Amino acid sequence: MSIRVDADACPKVIKEILFRAADRTATEVILVANSPLPTPPSPYIRSLQVEKGFDVADNTIVQQVEVGDLVITADIPLAAEVIEKGGVVLSPRGELLNKSNIKQRLGMRNFMEEMRSAGVDTGGPASFSQRDRQAFANQLDRWLQKNAQKN
Prior knowledge:
Blueprint: E1 2-6, H1 12-25, E2 28-33, E3 45-49, H2 56-64, E4 70-72, H3 76-84, E5 88-90, E6 96-97, H4 102-117, H5 130-150
Parallel strand pairs: 1-2, 1-4, 2-3, 4-5
Antiparallel strand pairs: 5-6
Helix pairs in contact: 1-5, 3-4
């Protein structure tokens, strides 16, 4: 089992949590991005730089994800593709996305996209908070504990 990160837009604090978890649990963490990303020296952490272009990083993640892998992303269409392939998705805000809630999230995302296209100011996401960070860390720990028992 590995953790793949849609890293271009992932908050730095989330990457730091992942780096500590990788070393603590000997879990592979792969950051996928269009630009070079610094990573701490660790046998469990690596960065994969892909070509610049629309959805190149997303497509790479979908191609490489295996059943049971964890993907960290806030990108709902990417999350839907990962779930379809049997992966598990965790947003940087700590929301676990799965077969039972992804269709609703995808529908809401598409609705909001239509509203923005029509010129409606829908605002942006709330600022990243300490609560979001804690929710992420808690969900990550649950996934790591569950998957450590399988190995």
